[in-house]
Amino acid sequence: MSWAFLRDLLSGVNKYSTGIGRIWVAVVFLFRLLVYVAAAENIWKHEHDEFECNIKQPGCENVCFDHFFPVSHIRLWALQLIMVSTPSLLVVFHVAYRENREKHHNQKLYKNPGKTDGGLLCTYLISLILKTGLEIFFLVLFYKLYNGFEIPRLVKCDLKPCPNTVDCYISKPTEKMIFLYCLVATSCLCIILNLSELSYLIFKYSIKCYLKRHVKKQQ
Q1: Distance separating alpha carbons of residues 164 and 158, to the nearest angstrom
Q2: What's the average model confidence in pLDDT over 32-45?
Q3: Whole-prediction pTM value?
Q4: Domain at 197, CATH number
Q5: Tell me: the pLDDT tens digits for 98-128?
Q6: Between the CA atoms of 179, 39, 81 and 202, what dihedral angle is there, to the nearest 10 degrees?
Q7: Are 20 and 179 in contact, with CB atoms under 8 Å apart?
Q8: Virtual CA dihedral for 118, 121, 126, 128, nearest 10 degrees?
Q9: Separation CA 115–CA 133 (nearest Å)
Q10: What is the pLDDT of residue 138?
Q11: Residue burial 59-98, b: 16+ Cβ < 10 Å; e: rest
Q12: pLDDT band with cut points at 50, 70 and 90 for residue 133
């Protein structure tokens, strides 16, 4: 899978972000995208083939694998990475709308089309809320699907067509656990950064409005 589009998207949004937003882009690019492409994708590449049960009953192994891994870890992380990056398109589209509007009217309508103020500030805040909500949603979804953030060495399965309770073994559980903790910790860090940037922008806008009102009263 090519991640060039996502890389270009994050680079484009970086121009309109605050300092905290640029840290978020760096975290997503370095600790999520690169870790995913360079290591995590290869670790889970043959997870189905390496899932073994101590019985050769036809269909038993497939049913057990589907029960304990209803969605592939790596595909779920890929979907999460795409979804949490998508709201940033709102900011890019809004800036493009401003620039096209200036071209259409053939005059300068904004001091800086990429400056986060007015409508663009609202769009930026909405994108932060969406990113935070999606991060939390995927963490909860992951926790519910896999009953926690752990990868056991041994799972017991008694589903049909298995004739009795069988032992199934997951390959490289320790290595997978390390990357699992890394990706979950990175997701939590992204939530903290998004909330910090959201609080910072709201506080900054509130101070700006207060100073304007104060100046008007004095005048």
Answers
A1: 6
A2: 73
A3: 0.81
A4: 1.20.1440.80
A5: 777 767 777 676 665 556 667 778 888 898 9
A6: 60
A7: no
A8: -170
A9: 25
A10: 92
A11: ebbebbbeebbeeebbebbbebbeebbebbebbbebbeeb
A12: very high
Is residue 50 situated within a structural domain? no
What is the extent of the structural domain holding 213?
3-45+73-147+184-217
Residues 134, 191: Cα–Cα separation, whole Å = 9
End-to-end CA distance of the chain: 60
Q: Burial code of 193-206, b = ≥16 C-beta within 10 A, e = fewer?
A: bbebbbeebeeeee
Asked if 157 and 132 count as a contact pair (C-beta separation under 8 A), the reply is: no
Query: Sign (positive/negative) of CA torsion 116, 119, 124, 125?
Result: positive
CB 52 within 8 Å of CB 168: yes
How many CB atoms sit inside 10 A of residue 25's CB? 19
Q: Which two tokens stand for residue 140?
A: 């909860």
User: Domain count of the chain?
Assistant: 1
